[in-house]
Amino acid sequence: MNRQSSNNELLPILLNGDRNRGLEVVNRLLEEGKDVITIYEGVIKPAMYEVGELWEEGKISVASEHLASAIVETLLGHLYYRIIKNSGTNKMVVVVTSVEDEVHQIGAKMVSDMFEIHGWTSHFLGANTPIDELLDFVTKVNPTIIGLSMSIDLHTRNLEKTILKIRERIPEMPILIGGQGLHEEGKEIMLKHNGVLYLKDLQALEKFLNQAHYEKDRPN
Ligand code: B12
Hints:
The chain is α/β, with parallel strands linked by helices. It has nine helices and five strands. The N and C termini lie far apart (51 Å).
């Protein structure tokens, strides 16, 4: 990709490490009335995908990739306070995490935010949650649904192991899976396991959240 032609205004800001300008951009987008999906899917995600391509092409260092990630995490933290007003207004609960060994967590955080925007309580566990720790946590909070994120295809075994262990412990638990490590085989994994749904992006997730009907009268 020719970076000169990139029209993503966030990309140079991330590469220059200019956190305050990043905050100005997301504040302005909100003031212009842009919705969360537009900001996440249309601005932040493409900027990070371009960061990945630049790293892969050897044009930026690992340090720059870390800097860009750290700034994006600040932006998501900042946006959280501005956009999430009705978290916990229904009785539904989700646990969102990246699978064991998976260090990428930005996509999973966006997924967690989408649930909260739709009134759910979300427990976002971040990156690399050990499978047994996840199982213990899930047993404790008894969520309505679990969301698993996987960015690197080498982690497919961990993902499937997690699905099977959840099934053993809570046979009826619905599981959402997503992340770019599943772009090739997400559907295949979904068809292999009962009660597993692969969703590609936030638009698909929003559609799911608008259609999903779970028991709202769960005990507290
Ligand atoms: C930032 C980053 C990192 C950061 C992560 C920091 C963090 N806090 O998350 C750091 C520096 C730690 C990192 C490390 C590595 N990374 Co990296 N990283 C990236 C980068 C640039 C951006 C990731 C990102 O945030 N994307 C933006 C988010 C929003 O997109 P997303 O994750 O796809 O999520 C969306 C959907 O997939 C979906 N989704 C995601 N999860 C879920 C879950 C559910 C339930 C649902 C419904 C949907 C869903 O919703 C999101 C919104 O649409 C990507 C490039 C890229 N293409 O993304 C490379 C990339 C993912 N990394 C890559 C690699 C190779 C690595 C390393 C192995 C080497 C390296 N770069 O140093 C290590 C991993 C080491 C390890 N121990 O595993 C490769 C993976 C290639 C592959 N085929 O597997 C990529 C693609 C870069 C590249 N072009 O080669 N990385």
